[in-house]
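[09:14] KT: can someone run the structure on this one? pasting the chain below
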Amino acid sequence: MRQDTGTGSDELRILQLGWMLFLKIFSDKDKELELLQDDYTSPIPAELHWDVWAGNDEGMTGDELLQFVDRKLFPTLSNIDLSTGNKRALLVHEVFDNNYNYMKSGIHLRQVINKLNEIDFNNSKDKHVFGQIYESFLGELQSAGTLGEFYTPRAITELMTELIDPKAGEQVLDPACGTGGFLTAVIEHLKAKANSVAEREAIQHNVKGWEYKPLPYMLANTNLILHDINLPNIRYGDSLERPLSEYRQSDRVDVIIANPPFGGVVSNNNENNFPQTYRTKESADLFLILMIHLLKDGGRAAIVLPDGSLTGDGIKQRIRQKLLEDCNLHTIIRLPNSVFQPYASVATNLLFFTKGEPTKNIWYWEHKLPEGQKSYSKTKQIQFAEFDRLKDWWNNREVSEHAWQASIEAIAANGYNLDIKNPHKLDVEETLSSSQLLDLMHSSFLQGDALLAELRKELLQ
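[09:31] RB: done, structure tokens below
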């Protein structure tokens, strides 16, 4: 793909691979469904199934292949018949109506197709291995332009899922699902605990996501199909476009787990879909109001929020006050600011809350970088094993160098500011007397003078 003039960047290669992977996996799943269900009919016309036009490694190539893909495959699948109400047909339409074939060489395209043909997605071993490859492929989004915003590190999705602990039969929603990282973590969590075929089948209906951009929507669907979900329950559209007043009790869910977009400005005047007192252009703040609204009483949430959502006056303060009055915000996990690099270097937090009772006390846990590591990076990403101490603490909480508490009275008196620093760090600083601080400063100045003298000596030589 790097040799092709149409896919000269990581972003374009991911876009290209996205629709190809989707179609191959979708077609392989259709073959499986036709064997298992006597009445199943694929929504894809027979001649457009992957194995028909792409399955033969010695088949179409060059200009013939390009013309077939550009003039037959994409136009037909983007205009697929939706009159039957077949939801898999709608999924195919939404993927191909919002995508393109970016490759310019039919020969290069055939080479990529042949590589994909080496994978059998109906073979459990192949599928498992490719699932790991696909996960690393999604991880590469972090260095592909603006696409990183749709990928949450696997260690974070697994931790939040384990701590929020979705149960069989509960409705679970990610209203900003990106490439489906949280959804697949929840699916695997529920599959591991399922005690019957009915419980496994219910996962497909109970775990749902919303995504409004074409590429992550496509990648998320492919991701869920890889995790044995025949028809992913992902809605294509803007989560903020529906007025809060239109939601009914039947729309509410038991669990919300999400990393909503932050730092973005809301488009299409969608802030007007929210009550006047909470209207803002900041996407993360509106998502917080939406998620509080969508939870049932007793419902639980685990979400990622930047430091900027924990502070601020005016609307930001009113949103935090609503969270604390409507929900029990029982835990905030504070993460280093390099967890989401390179696309975002701001400090982030994991918030855990239950709707239906006010907050009385908040526990804080500070996650520290591994010993000797200055920051996370593409080659040194956060690892699930780093959370072992946190998981031990979760059900047996005590104050420590990592953990502290704040009462709702103290928080309210401080303008509902949730950005509360680790007091144990402050204690260390406060133990230094004035004379000790002066001694430290004097020592620092002496070291500086010595360094300047050495530098001056080298320059004179």
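[09:33] KT: thanks! The chain has 16 helices and nine strands.
[09:34] RB: yep, looked fine to me
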